Every structure is written in structure tokens, then in C-alpha cells.
């Protein structure tokens, strides 16, 4: 497949260089070589009239499940879900089986992504050996193997001393520690947000304080160690306050929120649908309002999906027994465009920043811009199309909380390094998958 | 016209929350008719003849299971008891698979008790049978609330305007949630009392007054409903010891004096004598209606079974 | 109507040669006021009170699963045990006989009467079961498509028997 294309007639929205206008984008040999009016070049031309052209989306928080849990998702299917959602790169979380706590696993992920992946895959290494929260994994080795950050995501780091040491050590490596913030003692078997609805439904609950106490601890440790801390899936008003206050003091702290925490509240759990069970849980209205405010005022650096595929059988059980997590790569843009841009919380440019430029800045990844010389990763959006979510996904899993909903806008074309990896533009026959594509 | 007519809107009883005050009244009125059946020489009517009711008890229960079974038998239904222990559930079968296998035997109704909230709704969403919730985790226990209301109404002739205090482990009680729904819908004044460690978040939004003193809760009460304290909670940070719990929240004859003159004492059972209630109170024939609750449970469950299964709406 | 009920009361007393062991039982709902009035007539005639009871047959109906929506169940109230007694069942209209069949089933669950008699205000024919009335207020030949409605002061503010087209 050609790695040179010319995208014409589209509205280019690239917040990294404050671009918003009708421009053409030329990609040659996988890199952006020119963004200008009326470019002429002897390469494949993609007509993007009426569409939005943005730097490719980057997901800081994806569970690809491979190795070890291929019944839930694989690198092949997970990256196909990514490009179907407009993502050109995903950061693969370390809680695989075995976990990504040593070079061999990192290398396997990178090799498999090169063989069968539809988009770029940046591995996130484990903080602790075996994700056990006891001793540090070989972080320098993981870094040199290709890990872009480290995280024990799925579990908090309960031991403050371990967190301190991880932060200190990673400052030497130039990568952030990604923190999954919850106090397991405060959660005590909780399955949903603690509030009116957990009381109504008689469910064991997770208080907002569980997240907030650990965020408060970790920004203090980030200040102590002068290291980069990234808060994963931030979901409460108190956590936002802690991040804001720390930033004011000059602490290097970044944070992400998920589309489902933006769009859904704990009231929806009344349906007992296990596709509404995730950790952190869906929060109450006051927390969601605080998230929207933090998105609007720039406190939030990135929107990340926390795409967490599970097999149908695993979710087809009592709410208490179902595993935490929902998929999100394919629905992220529609959800965020509807809830944030159409409802006038932010402008389109800010949303592109949260999905592309912000994530690139946060983990210092290539991409997230259409500057000349940068990666030829482009997402093309159709804001006028409707996306009706059914239980059919490119992902192997279907545990989405948005099945049955219809969103405005979705990615219609995804280009990675100048190669078209996803194309559902109206009136254009879908591109045949390359021979290398692994069948589901 | 030979009969008054009325019906429930749903073919399931998953909780009190979805019921209207009219539906609650219908069930209680119908139960009055069934109470008389239990006093006959032949305590059986043919109303559910030929119908199969499966009692799917995935969590230990004696009182509720026996009560449902008697109710079903007095309505001439065929009954089948399915308990989790000794069954395929112990071999790891999921609830859905268990239910679908039972469904293959074409039951008309399934009565389910389960330790996880929402399990009855799971079945109702997937199976054609009528589902009756016999208690799901700390969520709801609708027939208990109905029999409590029946017992209160039997004594006072009404529910509206009564001062009803519910005391004990509010956080982990399905009985209290169903009772709050029912009693607030029927315009009673509900007070709940417990140490703050046993009060769940934002429960006042359910329309109840929350106090942390037994005396304050009992003052002026018409009904004092004591909840079971689960002994295994002792020492798990909910309260320091049973001794201290009894000293602060245990119901004694002296403390009951603050209640109204005709006040009654209720308990959904099983009781822990000397933990949440003193024997002098539990056995006080004038005050305690604990055994009437058990008797009325059969009549109320007959009414529910009859209303959900006795007559199917024909288009 | 009152005359018909008085006549029925007299006939009941004559057929039993007195009041010994007699119980009048009205079938809910319109058999109840008719039975009550008969019991009152008998009490006035004979000078001694005759026991009166109420039978609810809802749960014994053979059409329970097809009628919609649910009939409301009310208690049965019998003043004394019916074993070895003469029970006079009272209803407003005798038609298919199915109500009486249900009433007999219900009654048997309360004991073993020596004898059961049936008294109805109106017999309109069209029986579907081998049942007949011992005491009849008035025989009214009807077509199957007609509906007989008995109105009583106690429940409908007036005494009246209506024959209507369906």
C-alpha cells in the first residue's frame, strides 16, 4: 500500500499549530511534507470535501489483552477497533498475562503490532514486578525496549514508598508514571459510585474519596520527587481540585478523563447492565459537572478511552460478579463530539487537542500534529453523519455502554504513516483489508 | 358485574420502587381475602391449579422460602424448590444458565432469592416467566415490605400519617429499602436510626429522617421496626462490639416507653435476642406483632402469586 | 322484588319444615344482599334469628385464567361450622350453572353440610352443567344474546331487574 497520499479540499483542524481552514495535506513516504492551499502532487488523491482533517488520534489508555487474554481482544482486533474510531496510535496497558513487566513482553507486543497491528502501538510497562506493588520492575530495560510510560493500571500502588521510588527512577528515564488512583480499603468490594444510587440499589460502593486520597498523596510525591505524574481516568471533583492546586505549585502532573465518565452518570446503573460497570465507576452529576468544567478550562490534558474489552460470557453475569471495564475506542469521538462540542462545552479545536495533540504532549509521543516532517498520521471526520451504535464492533468485544445510542459525527478515514487503514467515506467502497490482516 | 376489577401493570414483582400506591393497595386488599383462606379447615383454593412455581433460592433462607411454599401450596400450584447447595451452581454454572435450564421445564413463575442486587431483573429481562423477587442482596425484598404494611394496616387501619421508625443495619438491609419505598409512597413518616457507620450515603434523598439516637427515633413512634444485626459485622469497622451496639441501639422495655401508647414492635426476623432487641420486648404480646408478621406473610405472598399468575390478561 | 324474596323465604322454611340447622349463604356479590333480605324475612316470620354467611368464589372459578383483569378476592365469612347443617346458597341469577359449581366446591372446603339447597332470584335458563335451583323467585325465559342485570338498593341504589341486549 502506498505511503504517500494527498488529502484535498478538507477543513484542516490542527490545534498544535493553530490551524483551522480549508487546506490540503501532502504525505510522502509516511511523513507530512506539506500543508498548504491547492497542493499538486503525483500521488493518490483523497478528496476530503466537506470533511474535517486532523492529526491522528492517540489513546493513552488501551487494554489490548495480548498476550494472555486473546479471548477478550488481540493486538490485531484492538488496533482495528482503534482505526475504526480514528485512532492512529494506542498506548497498550501492562496488565496482560503475563504482565508487561520485562523486555521480552514489550518486544513481543511491538513485534506483533508491526506484524498484525492496524495502527501504532506504544507499550506501557509495569511499575512493579508482576503488578504486585512490591518491588520495581526493570524500568530502564522496559524503557529501552520501547515502553513510553509505566503503570500498574488496573491496580493502585498502595505502597507510598514504592510510588516515590517509581517516580524518582522514571525522572531519570524521562517517562511519566501513570497512576490508577484508588484506595482499596475505602473501596471494600465496591462495584459502583457511592451516592444516592448505590444506596437505592443496595450495591457496595466506591466513594469519591477513594480516588481523591490517592491523587492527593501522589501529587505530593510528584512534588517531592520533581517527577512527571500522569493521573489515569480521573473521575472526581476532588481529584480535579488536587490536580489544579498541584499545577499552581508547579508540580508536573497531567491527567486524562474517559468518554464514559463525561457522558454517563451513576443513575444509569439502575438498569443493572454490566456494561455500566467500570473502575473508576460512573460518578454522580456534581462530579461530571466538575469534569466538564476541567475539560473546558484546560485542566484536563487528554481524553483517553480506557478501552477494556471483556468476553460476552464474562459480562453476562450478576452486576457484582462482572469484571470492571468497557470498550471505547470506536465510540469515543461520537460521544465526545455530541456531549462536548454540540453541547457547547468546548470548540472542535479543543476536542482535537484532547484526542490528539494533548496525548502526544503528555507522553511525549511523535504525532499529534500535522507540522511538516511529522508522522503522516491523519484522522478524517464526518461531522454530519450519524453513528448508531449496535453490538457489532471491530473490537472482539462488545461490552460498550453506548449500544443503542446514536451519535453525531465519526471518523470516516484513518491514515497511519500515509497508509489508509480505515475508510468508510460515503460513496466509497470499503478498502479490502491487506493480506496480513488477522481475521477475528 | 360480579367482581371489582383491577390489576398490576407488570407481570413481575422486582421491587416496591416501581409500584404505584394503587397497586400497593390492591395487593394489601387482596391479601385480606387470602388471610381468611388460611383460617379455613381446608386451607387450600384451586386458583393456581396446574401452574408451576419454581422457588430458586440461591442464598440461604428458611422463613421466606417456607412462607412462599405454603402460599403456593394453598393456591394449589405445583412447586419445585431449587437451592444453590448441592446443585449445578456449586459446579460453577452461571445464574443465566441455571435459569434457562429451569425455564425449559416451563414454569409459570420463578421466585428468586439471590445475594446480588439485580439478579431478579436479570431473569425478568431474559425469561418469559413471571419473576418474583424474594430478596436480592441489599436491594429489595418487596414481599417483606408488603407483609409489614399489611400488619401495620391491620393494627392501625391505615398507613398514611403514621410515624414509623426503622432501626438497625440500614446499610446492608434490603428490607429497609423496600419498606422506605412502600411507606413513603403510602404517606407514612419514616425515620431511620443507626450509628453513622450503618447508614448508607444520601439515604435522606429517599424521603426519610435520619437520626443517630434510639431515643430520638422512638419518641412519638407508632411503629418501631427493628432490623437484624448481622453478627459477622462485629469488629469489621461497622461497630466495635455487640455489647456496645445493644447498649446504644438495642430495644428494651424502658426505651420503648417513649413510643406512642398504642405503638407496635416489628422485626423481619430472624431475631438476635439481646443484640438488637430484648426478649421482654420481643415477647410482649401487647406490643410485639412479630409472629403476626409471619402469619400475614403467607396471605401477602398468596395475593402476589395470585395477582401475577392467577389471571392472565386476555386481549 | 321484595315480594319475590319474601316468597323465596317462605318456600325455604316450608321445604325444611322449620329453621333447625339452617344457614343462609349469599354468593358474592349480589347473592349477598338477597340472602341477607331472605334471612331477615325468615327471622321476622319465625321469631328466631337465622345464621347468615358470605361465600367468595373467585378462587374457584373455572374461567380464572381467561377473565381479565383479575377479580378482587374478598374473604368468605361463615357464621358457624357448616358440618351437618342445611345450607341455602343464594344468588341473583342462575344461568350456565358454573358459578354454582364453583360455590359448591368452595363450600365443600369448609365442611360437609347435610344438605345444600339453591335459591335464586331469577332463573334465565341456558344451563351448561346439570344444576337446578330448589327455590326460584322468577323464571325469565331469555335468549342467549340477552344480558340480565339485577340491581339492588344495597349496591345500586334501586331494586330492578333489567333484560338488555348484549
Distance between the termini of chain C: 23 Å
The count of β-strands of chain C is: 7
| Backbone shape of chain A | globular
Question: Which residues of chain C form runs of ≥5 with pLDDT under 50?
Answer: none
Largest interface: B-C, 32 and 28 residues
Strand order of the largest sheet of chain C: 2-1-3-4-5
Please identify the structural class of chain A as seen in this structure.
Answer: alpha/beta
What layout of secondary structure does this protein have?
The complex is a heterotrimer of chains A (440), B (315) and C (166).
Chain A: E1 5-14, E2 19-28, E3 31-36, E4 44-47, E5 52-55, E6 57-62, H1 75-84, E7 87-92, H2 103-116, E8 120-125, H3 139-145, E9 149-151, H4 160-173, E10 177-179, H5 184-187, E11 192-193, H6 196-201, E12 205-206, H7 208-225, E13 229-231, H8 237-248, E14 253-257, H9 259-263, H10 285-296, E15 302-303, H11 312-315, H12 332-342, H13 348-363, E16 378-388, E17 406-416, E18 419-423
Parallel strand pairs in A: 1-4, 1-5, 6-7, 7-8, 8-9, 9-10, 10-13, 11-12, 13-14, 14-15
Antiparallel strand pairs in A: 1-2, 2-3, 5-16, 16-17, 17-18
Helix pairs in contact in A: 2-3, 4-7, 7-8
Chain B: H1 21-37, E1 52-57, H2 63-74, E2 78-83, H3 95-103, E3 109-114, H4 119-126, E4 130-136, H5 142-156, E5 163-167, H6 174-185, E6 189-193, E7 209-211, H7 214-218, E8 223-226, H8 242-249, H9 253-256, E9 264-266, H10 279-282, H11 290-310
Parallel strand pairs in B: 1-2, 1-3, 3-4, 5-6, 5-8, 6-7, 8-9
Chain C: H1 2-16, E1 22-27, H2 31-46, E2 52-55, E3 86-94, H3 98-108, E4 115-123, E5 135-139, E6 146-151, H4 153-156, E7 160-165
Parallel strand pairs in C: 1-2, 1-3, 3-4, 4-5
Antiparallel strand pairs in C: 6-7
Helix pairs in contact in C: 1-2
Amino acid at each position: 500500500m502506498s505511503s504517500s497520499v494527498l488529502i484535498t479540499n478538507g477543513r484542516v483542524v490542527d490545534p498544535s499549530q493553530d490551524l483551522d481552514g480549508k487546506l490540503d495535506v501532502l504525505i510522502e513516504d509516511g511523513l507530512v511534507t506539506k500543508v498548504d492551499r491547492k497542493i499538486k502532487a503525483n500521488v493518490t488523491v483523497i478528496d476530503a470535501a466537506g470533511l474535517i482533517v486532523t492529526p491522528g488520534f492517540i489513546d493513552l489508555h488501551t487494554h489490548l489483552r495480548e498476550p494472555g487474554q486473546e479471548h477478550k481482544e488481540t493486538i490485531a482486533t484492538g488496533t482495528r477497533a482503534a482505526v475504526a474510531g480514528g485512532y492512529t496510535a494506542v498506548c497498550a496497558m501492562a496488565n496482560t498475562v503475563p504482565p508487561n513487566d520485562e523486555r521480552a513482553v514489550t518486544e513481543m507486543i511491538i513485534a506483533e503490532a508491526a506484524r498484525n497491528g492496524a495502527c501504532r502501538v506504544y507499550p506501557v510497562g509495569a511499575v512493579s514486578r508482576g503488578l504486585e506493588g512490591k518491588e520495581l520492575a526493570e524500568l530502564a530495560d522496559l524503557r529501552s525496549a520501547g515502553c513510553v510510560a509505566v503503570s500498574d493500571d488496573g491496580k493502585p500502588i498502595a505502597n507510598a514508598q514504592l510510588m516515590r521510588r517509581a517516580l524518582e527512577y522514571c525522572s531519570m528515564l524521562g517517562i511519566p508514571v501513570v497512576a490508577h488512583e484508588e484506595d482499596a480499603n475505602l473501596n471494600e468490594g465496591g462495584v459502583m459510585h457511592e451516592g444516592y444510587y448505590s444506596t437505592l440499589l443496595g450495591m457496595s460502593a466506591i466513594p469519591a474519596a477513594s480516588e481523591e486520597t490517592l491523587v492527593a498523596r501522589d501529587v505530593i510525591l510528584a512534588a517531592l520527587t520533581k517527577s512527571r505524574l500522569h493521573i489515569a481516568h480521573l473521575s472526581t471533583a476532588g481529584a480535579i481540585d488536587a490536580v489544579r492546586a498541584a499545577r499552581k505549585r508547579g508540580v508536573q502532573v497531567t491527567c486524562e478523563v474517559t468518554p464514559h465518565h463525561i457522558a454517563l452518570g451513576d443513575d444509569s446503573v439502575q438498569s443493572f447492565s454490566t456494561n455500566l460497570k467500570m473502575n473508576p465507576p460512573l460518578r454522580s452529576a456534581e462530579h461530571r459537572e466538575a469534569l466538564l468544567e476541567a475539560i473546558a478550562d484546560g485542566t484536563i490534558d487528554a481524553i483517553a478511552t480506557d478501552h477494556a474489552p471483556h468476553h460476552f460470557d464474562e459480562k453476562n453475569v450478576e452486576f457484582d460478579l462482572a469484571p470492571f471495564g468497557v470498550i471505547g475506542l470506536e465510540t469515543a469521538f461520537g460521544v465526545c463530539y455530541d456531549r462536548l462540542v454540540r453541547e457547547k462545552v468546548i470548540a472542535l479545536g479543543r476536542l482535537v487537542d484532547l484526542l490528539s495533540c494533548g496525548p502526544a504532549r503528555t507522553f511525549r509521543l511523535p504525532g499529534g500534529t500535522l507540522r511538516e516532517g511529522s508522522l503522516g498520521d491523519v484522522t478524517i471526520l464526518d461531522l454530519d453523519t450519524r453513528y448508531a451504535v449496535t453490538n457489532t464492533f471491530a473490537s472482539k468485544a462488545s461490552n460498550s455502554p453506548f449500544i443503542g445510542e446514536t451519535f453525531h459525527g465519526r471518523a470516516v478515514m484513518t491514515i497511519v504513516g500515509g497508509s489508509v487503514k480505515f475508510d468508510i467515506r460515503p460513496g466509497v467502497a470499503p478498502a479490502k483489508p491487506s493480506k496480513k490482516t488477522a481475521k477475528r | 358485574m360480579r367482581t371489582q376489577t383491577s390489576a398490576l401493570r407488570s407481570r413481575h414483582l422486582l421491587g416496591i420502587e416501581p409500584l404505584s400506591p394503587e397497586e400497593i393497595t390492591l395487593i394489601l386488599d387482596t391479601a385480606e381475602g387470602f388471610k381468611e383462606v388460611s383460617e379455613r379447615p381446608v386451607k387450600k383454593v384451586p386458583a393456581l391449579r396446574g401452574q408451576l412455581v419454581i422457588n430458586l433460592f440461591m442464598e440461604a433462607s428458611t422463613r421466606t422460602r417456607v412462607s412462599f411454599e405454603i402460599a403456593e401450596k394453598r393456591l394449589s400450584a405445583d412447586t419445585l424448590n431449587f437451592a444453590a447447595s448441592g446443585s449445578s451452581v456449586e459446579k460453577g454454572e452461571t445464574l443465566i444458565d441455571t435459569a434457562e435450564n429451569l425455564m425449559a421445564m416451563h414454569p409459570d413463575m420463578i421466585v428468586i432469592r439471590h445475594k446480588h442486587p439485580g439478579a431478579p431483573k436479570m431473569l425478568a429481562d431474559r425469561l418469559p416467566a413471571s419473576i418474583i423477587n424474594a430478596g436480592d442482596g441489599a436491594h429489595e425484598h418487596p414481599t417483606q415490605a408488603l407483609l409489614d404494611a399489611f400488619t401495620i394496616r391491620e393494627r392501625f387501619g391505615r398507613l398514611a400519617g403514621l410515624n414509623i421508625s426503622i432501626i438497625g443495619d440500614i446499610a446492608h438491609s434490603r428490607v429497609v429499602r423496600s419498606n422506605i419505598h412502600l411507606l413513603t409512597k403510602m404517606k407514612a413518616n419514616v425515620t431511620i436510626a443507626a450509628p453513622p457507620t450503618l447508614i448508607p450515603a444520601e439515604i435522606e434523598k429517599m424521603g426519610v429522617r435520619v437520626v443517630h439516637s434510639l431515643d430520638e427515633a422512638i419518641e412519638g413512634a407508632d411503629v418501631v421496626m427493628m432490623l437484624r444485626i448481622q453478627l459477622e459485622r462485629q469488629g469489621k469497622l461497622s461497630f466495635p462490639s455487640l455489647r456496645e451496639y445493644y447498649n446504644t441501639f438495642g430495644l428494651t422495655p424502658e426505651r420503648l416507653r417513649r413510643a406512642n401508647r398504642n405503638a407496635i414492635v416489628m422485626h423481619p426476623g430472624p431475631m438476635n435476642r439481646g443484640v438488637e432487641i430484648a426478649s421482654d420486648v420481643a415477647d410482649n404480646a401487647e406490643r410485639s406483632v412479630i409472629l403476626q408478621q409471619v402469619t400475614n406473610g403467607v396471605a401477602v405472598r398468596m395475593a402476589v402469586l395470585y395477582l401475577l399468575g392467577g389471571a392472565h390478561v386476555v386481549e | 322484588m321484595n315480594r319475590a324474596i319474601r316468597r323465596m323465604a317462605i318456600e325455604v322454611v316450608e321445604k325444611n319444615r322449620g329453621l333447625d340447622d339452617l344457614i343462609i349463604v349469599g354468593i358474592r356479590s349480589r347473592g349477598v344482599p338477597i340472602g341477607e333480605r331472605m334471612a331477615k324475612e325468615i327471622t321476622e316470620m319465625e321469631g328466631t334469628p337465622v345464621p347468615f354467611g358470605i361465600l367468595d368464589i373467585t378462587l374457584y372459578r373455572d374461567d380464572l385464567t381467561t377473565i381479565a383483569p383479575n377479580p378482587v378476592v374478598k374473604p368468605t365469612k361463615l357464621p358457624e361450622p357448616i358440618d351437618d347443617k342445611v345450607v341455602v346458597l343464594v344468588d341473583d341469577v342462575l344461568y350456565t350453572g358454573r358459578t354454582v359449581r364453583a360455590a359448591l366446591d368452595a363450600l365443600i372446603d369448609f365442611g360437609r353440610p347435610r344438605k345444600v339447597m339453591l335459591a335464586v332470584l331469577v332463573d334465565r335458563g341456558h344451563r351448561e352443567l346439570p344444576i337446578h335451583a330448589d327455590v326460584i323467585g322468577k323464571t325469565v325465559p331469555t335468549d342467549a344474546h340477552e344480558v340480565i342485570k339485577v340491581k339492588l338498593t344495597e349496591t345500586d341504589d334501586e331494586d330492578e331487574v333489567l333484560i338488555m341486549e348484549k
